[in-house]
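Design job #97: recover the sequence.
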């Protein structure tokens, strides 16, 4: 079974970027990890992009298999997305991609 990486890329308004990053590190990612759907999460900052205005981050959640990833989508994703949008409103813009580990 293939390992799945659920990647959430977020552009964050400069004026809230420090607060947002702290929230991600101390609250949001740990709550997602507590679902048991992922074995690891990594927060990354995009480099070599024009972030003179706003920084861009990617969070990669590693699911051991597709069933765990699908369980996350079905049981948890909607609430976590809603929480983030309620808290940050128009201060963030996110998009999601799903990757399969092939080696």
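Job complete. Output follows.
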């Amino acid at each position: 079974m293939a390992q799945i990486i659920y990647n959430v890329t977020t552009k964050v308004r400069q004026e809230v970027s420090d607060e947002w990053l702290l929230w991600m590190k101390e609250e949001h990612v740990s709550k997602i990890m507590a679902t048991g759907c992922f074995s690891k999460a990594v927060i990354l900052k995009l480099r070599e992009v024009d972030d003179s205005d706003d920084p861009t981050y990617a969070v990669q959640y590693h699911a051991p298999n597709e069933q765990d990833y699908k369980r996350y989508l079905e049981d948890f994703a909607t609430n976590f997305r809603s929480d983030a949008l309620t808290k940050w409103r128009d201060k963030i813009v996110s998009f999601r991609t799903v990757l399969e580990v092939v080696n």
